[in-house]
Write a structure and sequence with these properties.
With about 550 residues, the chain is α+β, with helices and mostly antiparallel strands. The protein has helices at about 1-10, 15-20, 25-55, 60-85, 90-120, 125-185, 205-210, 215-220, 225, 230-245, 290-340, 345-375, 385-405, 425-445, 505-515, and strands spanning about 185-195, 200-205, 250-260, 260-275, 280-290, 380-385, 405-410, 420, 455-465, 470-475, 520-525, 530-535. The longest helix is centred in the first third of the chain and has 59 residues, at about 125-185. The radius of gyration is 61 Å and the shape is rod-shaped. It is an enzyme of class 2 (transferase).
């Protein structure tokens, strides 16, 4: 080993390489310049590679670049040694340099080949540009997605805030309506619709519980047939079904036997619709009308008696005629018996007695009509033929009015569809309207001496398609003052002198007809006025024309 290092320093007995070239200048310069230029180039290349490796910190296989730097640098030193040995025979040193170059070359070659597949797998610049483009696109898309996410988060926060506010308002609304439901003086109830013909009670408010004697906890979730007798349950289901099918509020009056007793109720039903417009529940309000109807009954009876009072003079005049006939006939028969005794003509006497009996029967009919009209009719609501009460009212007044030169006529079929209500009340309303027509004709006679007649026409018509029956009273009297048709049915509104009435008659009529689900309208004619009573027939219990003002006077 010592001899080797000595040989590196001491050239020994070797001859310079230039001697082999016979010191020919052209050969010497060719080898010298070639080795120097190659060596200089080989030395500059590692410097560039080292700078590249230093600047690219993310470079893959950096150690391989360093091995190439060492290999190329060793190759450059080998060429410098070739130029050196042209004059100095340091072949041992040159051999050592070549050995080092060979070692580093072999090592580089050994590690290079396994790395070639991996290096080939590295993307090309075009692929890198394409990948960078895709990456840039992904970055843009991600940025847009982030912006969209932020926008959606902002929208979500806004909606969450709105939902929170809506929930807060909903809770406040629920508390508000719950307070109304539990503290309202009027009875409220809720019915759930579970099927085509299945209705279940959901709740009653405390006021309705007190009025009916029912407990909300006891009826919740139950059907009418589970709580009430069959007739009453069928009646309730019919009303609920009608409101559901109509999909609009309905109003009606009913008399029910409940735990609190037999009471008269004015009920309003309104459907609660879902987003598709289908009814899911029924909201009902009920007002106890028992005391009100009792008072109204007394008022109607008083009105009836007052009507009889206004008719008393005419009826007395009407009864005076048969009384005069009876008196004259009786006096004539008595005179014959006094003058002729047993020889009096029995046929003449029999004819006289028959005439007296006929006139007495006529007076009896008048008295019976008066008694029938004045008595209290049954409070029961029943189906009835409206033709009979109308005929009764006309029969009660036609002779009286005829004696005054007023023609009273009736145009009505033999029978009509039945309506629900009280026959006596319909007769009372018709009598009231006929009496008003009589007063209007009398008033026209007072202001127009040339008007000597007067006619009142009553008619009954029916519209089966609409489920409506109408009773029409028209006259050729003074008619209604301008603007009075809209107010004539209000309480204490009258076209007569104060001494002839308080203006309650038509208001009572509206109430009585409203209790039967009907209405009364008034209009002027070219000469006179016309009043129309409209009633739903029994097959159409829930008409599409609700009575005005709830039917209350």
């Amino acid at each position: 080993m010592e001899t080797f290092f000595q040989a590196l320093i001491v050239p020994g007995d070797f001859l310079p390489h230039g001697l082999c070239l016979t010191w020919r200048p052209e050969l010497i310069w060719t080898h010298l310049l070639s080795d120097l230029l190659i060596g200089a180039s080989y030395c500059s290349i590692p410097i560039g590679l080292l700078y590249f490796v230093w600047r690219r910190q993310d470079l893959a296989y950096k150690w391989l670049f360093l091995m190439f730097c060492a290999f190329i640098l060793a190759c450059g030193v080998t060429h410098f040694m070739g130029a050196w040995t042209l004059w100095y025979p340091d072949y041992v040193a040159q051999g050592a340099v070549k050995a080092f170059t060979a070692a580093i070359s072999v090592m580089t070659a050994v590690v290079l080949w396994p790395l070639i597949p991996q290096a080939l797998a590295l993307p090309s610049p075009a692929q890198l540009r394409e990948a960078n483009g895709r990456l840039h696109q992904q970055i843009l898309e991600r940025q847009r997605a982030e912006l969209e996410i932020r926008r959606m988060n902002d929208e979500l926060e806004r909606r969450a805030t709105e939902l929170s506010d809506a929930n807060r308002r909903l809770r406040a609304s629920e508390l508000h309506y719950s307070s109304i439901f539990h503290h309202l003086a009027e009875g409220l109830f809720v019915v759930r619709i579970d099927g085509p013909d299945e209705f279940r009670f959901e709740a009653l408010n405390p006021s309705h519980e007190r009025q009916t004697g029912l407990e909300s906890s006891e009826i919740a979730g139950k059907t009418p047939h589970e709580l009430f007798p069959p007739d009453l349950a069928d009646h309730l289901v019919e009303r609920y079904r009608a409101c559901r099918d109509a999909r609009r509020p309905i109003q009606y009056e009913e008399t029910l036997d409940l735990p609190a007793g037999r009471r008269v109720w004015q009920t309003n039903l309104a459907p609660v619709l879902d987003s598709d417009g289908n009814p899911t529940k029924l909201l009902g309000t009920s007002r106890d009308m028992t005391d009100h109807r009792a008072l109204q009954e007394e008022l109607a009876q008083a009105s009836k008696l007052a009507t009889l009072g206004t008719m008393a003079a005419g009826i007395a005049h009407e009864m005076s005629q048969p009384l005069n006939i009876i008196k004259i006939t009786a006096d004539d028969c008595c005179l014959m018996m006094e003058e002729e005794g047993a020889e009096a003509d029995p046929r003449y006497l029999k004819d006289g007695l028959d005439l007296i009996g006929t006139q007495a029967s006529r007076m009896g009919e008048i008295v019976d009509q008066m008694r029938s009209f004045s008595r209290r009719d049954s409070p029961e609501v029943v189906p009835f033929d409206p033709i009979q009460p109308v005929r009764g009212a006309v029969a009660l007044l036609e002779r009286h009015y005829g004696s005054e030169g007023i023609q009273l006529t009736l145009d009505a079929p033999a029978t009509a569809s039945t309506v629900m209500g009280r026959p006596g009340r319909l007769e009372q309303v018709v009598v009231n309207l006929l009496s008003n027509a009589h007063d209007a004709i009398t008033a026209r006679r007072a202001v127009d001496p040339s008007f000597g007649g007067g006619a009142i026409h009553a008619a009954v018509t029916e519209d089966p398609a609409a489920g409506r029956l109408s009773v029409i009273i028209s006259d050729d009297g003074t008619g209604l003052p301008p603007g009075m048709a809209e107010r004539i049915f209000d309480p204490f509104v009258t076209t007569k002198e104060a001494s002839k009435g308080l203006g309650l008659g038509l208001s009572i009529c509206v109430s009585l007809i409203g209790a039967m689900g009907g209405r009364i309208t008034a209009e002027n004619l070219d000469q006179g006025a016309r009043f129309t009573i409209s009633l739903p027939t029994r097959g159409q219990s829930f008409p599409d024309w609700p009575p005005p003002g709830n039917g209350d006077a």
